[in-house]
Amino acid sequence: MAISLVKGQKISLVKESGGASLAKISMGLGWDAAKRKPKGIIGAIFGGKQPDSIDLDASCVLFDADKNMVDAVWFRQLKSKDGSIRHTGDNLTGDGDGDDESIIVDLDKVPANVQALVFTVNSFRGQTFQEVDNAFCRLVNLSDNQEIARYTLTGGGNYTGYIMAKVYRHHGEWKMAALGEPSDGQTFNDMLPQITATL
After folding, report:
1. What is the helix, strand, coil percentage profile of the chain, to 5?
2. Measured between alpha carbons, how far is 108 from 118 in angstroms, rounded to an integer?
3. What confidence score (pLDDT) does residue 192 get?
């Protein structure tokens, strides 16, 4: 059964996978555009306005032990240079249920010099998270398609980015920490100083 993470919580991925082989994982990101409140008498009569589409972007930034950025996987580079991490593609609206964007990580192929993978989400058009509902990231073990952990983003906020979670090596095993750090930036590049501070 998946763990519902709270901000700052850390878990061992090996233990939470229930002993199942943990070679390939997916970090899924989902969201919906928030319904806007109706304006004026006409709006009140005919109900809420349809929400605008929201273009959130999931990214994975790779770091070495010295906190240097090694690589990044995002909508402008859908695969890491070493081939161990792959983005499934850019969702421009948040329409549909389930994961709107996914980043697949082949843990066994992540180079030994990479110590941490930080997953971020950004609003490319600059819409804030006050306009977003039901945002979450979840980690799935792709060997059995079981959800290991889920972090639900609550509270919205006047921000355009979030540092969602970190998957990192610790004493020979992979662990995950729910970060949930609000930030500003339309791409992960805008947030690099704050991302590095989480390492």
Report:
1. 15, 45, 40
2. 17
3. 96
Contact 32, 132 (CB under 8 A): yes
The structure tokens listed for 165 are 């979670």
Token pair listed for 184: 């500003």
Answer for the pair 117, 61: CB distance below 8 angstroms, yes or no. yes
Nearest to 148 by CA among 156, 138, 157: 138
Instruction: Give the C-alpha separation, 32 to 156, whole Å.
Output: 12
Q: Where are the alpha helices (DSSP H) in 29-178?
A: 40-46
Q: Distance of CA 161 to CAs 43, 83, 143, Å?
A: 30, 26, 31
Rounded-to-integer distance, Cα 74 and Cα 78, Å: 6
Per-residue pLDDT tens digits for 131-144? 888 888 888 889 88
H or E element that contains 72: strand 69-73
Q: Are 118 and 166 in contact, with CB atoms under 8 Å apart?
A: yes
We find that the CATH architecture of domain 3-34+49-197 is Sandwich (2.60)
Instruction: Please give the Cα distance from 198 to 98 (Å, whole number).
Output: 27
**pLDDT per residue over 50-93, tens digit each?**
446 777 889 999 999 999 999 999 999 999 999 999 999 866 55
Report domain extents, the chain: 3-34+49-197
63/114 Cα distance (integer angstroms): 6
Query: Are 106 and 119 spatial neighbours (Cβ–Cβ below 8 Å)?
Result: no
